[in-house]
Write a structure and sequence with these properties.
- By secondary structure, this protein is α/β, with parallel strands linked by helices.
- It is 58% helix and 14% strand.
- It is built from 8 helices and 5 strands.
- The radius of gyration is 16 Å and the shape is globular.
- The relative contact order is 0.20.
- The structure holds BIS(adenosine)-5'-pentaphosphate.
């Protein structure tokens, strides 16, 4: 099984490149951001609570997102592999994911980290905020999301580096070129 964590700060291109990767490798795409936004749109009790947290640019509790991932993985036991997009975002989430995947004899293959400078992240997200109207794409929330990333999420890269599974990818440039770098990194596994 090919189990890829697509990692990087808000706006680094995780969603964009996930689409390319799932089409190319026929993997199941698990994006905790998308799952949460679906709950928000359906106005479920979880969605109503999550929206408040997401609009502040903070992280939803580990317990909630780990539960979501466990249930989605168990619905897709026949998958060729998974792309985890926006998850894990804390070391506790990474530990829970490793436990889940190891129990299935399908450990994480690699963490691909998209590297993009902060100025470009802000530019991309502000532009998307105007075009798509995502309520967390405003200046204050974007800054909070980047702070949360630095404080709570970046340690996840160190956690997988210690396992020899971290690969850094230049995330600036044409989408196709970045996709090629991701494929090259996977081919070198
Ligand atoms: P989530 O949906 O995961 O948002 P994010 O990590 O902030 O990521 P984005 O979707 O903003 O960016 P991306 O890296 O996917 O880039 P994209 O391809 O879209 O999470 C949202 C919220 O949900 C969190 O803040 C948190 O509250 C909660 N949450 C989610 N997961 C959680 C978890 N595990 N634990 C706790 N809470 C969780 O690209 C961005 C823009 O750039 C697009 O407009 C795109 O067209 C453009 N773009 C992409 N590539 C390029 C390129 N090469 N050049 C120029 N523009 C580009």
């Amino acid at each position: 099984m090919l189990n890829v964590i697509l990692f990087g700060p808000p706006g680094s291109g995780k969603g964009t490149q996930s689409e390319n990767l799932i089409a190319h490798y026929q993997l199941v795409h698990l994006s905790t951001g998308n799952i949460l936004r679906d709950e928000v749109n359906r106005q479920t009790p979880l969605g109503v609570e999550a929206k408040k947290i997401m609009d502040q640019g903070q992280l939803v509790s580990d317990e909630i997102v780990i539960g979501m991932i466990k249930s989605k993985v168990s619905e897709n036991l026949e998958a060729k592999g998974f792309i985890f997009d926006g998850f894990p975002r804390t070391v506790a989430q990474a530990e829970a994911l490793d436990k889940l995947m190891d129990a299935m004899n399908a450990p994480i293959s690699v963490l691909l980290c998209l590297e993009v400078p902060e100025e470009e992240l802000k530019e991309r997200l502000l532009k998307r905020g105007v075009i798509e109207g995502r309520t967390d794409d405003n200046e204050t929330t974007i800054s909070n999301r980047i702070v949360e990333y630095k404080n709570k999420t970046q340690p996840v890269a160190d956690y997988y580096q210690a396992q020899g599974k971290l690969k850094k990818i230049q995330g600036v440039g044409a989408v196709d070129e970045i996709f090629q770098s991701l494929k090259d990194a996977i081919a070198s596994l």
